[in-house]
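Internal ticket - ligand job 625, zinc ion:
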Amino acid sequence: MQRPLLRIILGFTAAAMLAAAVFFIARKPDNAVFPGISGPEASTTVSRNVPVEWKQYDHAAPGAMAILLTNPDSSWLGLAHGLKTIGVPFRITTDVKTALQHKVVMVYPTISGKVLNRESLQALAAFPREGGTLIGFDVAGGGLEPVFGFSETGSDRSRMALHIDTNQAVTAEFTDPRERIIPLNGSKRSGDDMGVVSYSQPRFPPLATYDNGAAAILHRAVGKGHAYAIGLDIGFFLLKGYNNRQQGIARSYVNDFEPALDVLLRLLRNIYRQGEPDAVTLGTVPQAKSLSVILTHDIDYTESVRNALVYAQHEKQSGISATHFIQTKYIRDWNDDVFFKPELVDTIDRIAALGMEIASHSVSHSRVFSKFELGSGREQYPQYQPFVRDAEHTENGTVLGELRVSRFLLGHLTKGGDPVSFRPGHLQNPFSLPQALEASGFRYSSSVTANTALTHLPFRLAYGRETKAQTAIYEFPITIEDEHKPKLGDRLPQALAVADRVSRYGGLYVVLIHPNVLDHKLDFQKRLVAALKNRAWFGSLRDFGAWWTARDQITWQVQYEGRRRTLLLESPQPISDLVLQLPKHYRLVKTTPETVTTPSAGSSLLISKITGPLKLEFETAGAAP
Ligand SMILES: [Zn+2]
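stdout (structure tokens):
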């Protein structure tokens, strides 16, 4: 028999254990935030990692650039996505004769006797002489040295930067100091440093050199033809940026100008325009404006919710739409209290009613989201219980849980519709994010900074942030944020200076303002919108993403007949306010079907609306080819 004291102690212990158990179960009642709600019903299946075939990019298109692919096991996908982004038409082929039917031929990733036979090498060697433009990557033998004008090829893994000579026609536009020098490797040496090729004894001043003075890009004019030898694997470099694997190459993290990839894409576009008299390229900004501005707000704090409505009211008054990323926080944890509640839903509905996009900012906003497991694809509210214990630990969180459940709650409970855009907390970027976004119904991501992506243009995301497979998700990186010092309200001039630099080539300008305060941040937004309103296009990520995705699917080709040119353009999705950049000697005669067109800067043409096929007929001032 137990003594009474022991019995009391045991009794207390049992009671304490029961209380503890009740407490742990009691974490669930937070879910009663929305009684009777559960979902999503359907499970999510992430597609397998299937490499994309280069043949998907083999569209016969007279007037396009040809990419003669000499090794399919290369980073050609980066090149394909990059050329899509900059709006250059191209076809990929492994057939030399097919390639040489085009006026501009890029041989990628290498030219050598190992990958091309003698006859092919001779045909390529003759091409510039016959008026074509030959762009060779990694020209490693094959007897083509004299064609490009150098003696020997060397390889090097320790180059830090590319210096561009702006005294040539195709580089003259790179007047910004950050455009003239492109960083290639981070200052910390690693086994992953990017290797490059240099060309010795150049016969002409190089178009670009490395930091040690060795020739990096050569240009030789041959009559009307051109030969360019490029020592840097631009496809590989593009994927480094697009996959957010730049490892210290970027010269800044955020709030600054980092155009490394953009310079290389613009250079390729200039070479294409120089070599193809019928070059037609797509503009990057809607409505022939010079900059695409997307205002975004991350709502991840109890106090932010009501303030977001004030930002939305300003946006509405300014005649623009913006994206409000909302954390669907239904669990109280280390981060904050529950704030995704019925009262919040009312506020979100008011924000949506003002024309704003309602997007997802995850469920848990974990600082270790990038380390989350992919998950089962069956995560549901309210059973899904990600619990942030502290900065380093989150329990029960999965990538698919964060995406599925936040999307379900916003789509099911608010009037904002099913979210299509996502931004993770703390820009935590799991390798599985692109394919997980695609599988769970999202379309647009804003998960990295422009500076660390090395670009101020949108781009398509690869599966697993790797190099072989693609997803249908597009990334729109963040340009300006509000957490770095000095406080946002004190750095409008710097932010506008970045806008000026990015707008020189039609870049993207995504602004992130946390509505935790109104004050100097709202004031910044008001002054920024006023300063950029006339020359920039403004819209939500959903609006711009839809426009960009439609643009990315457009195919076009030019047909010639004497001095007449017919541009056949096909847009699988309707698109408005698209700019075509045309050759200077084109004069528009007719469009079929009839469409409103407006000449704009340079020799560009703004097309008000395209639905399906569009035929544009031009007279040319110059001689027939
Ligand atoms: Zn956040």
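Auto-summary: The first strand starts at residue 65 and ends at 69. The chain is about 25% helix and 25% strand.
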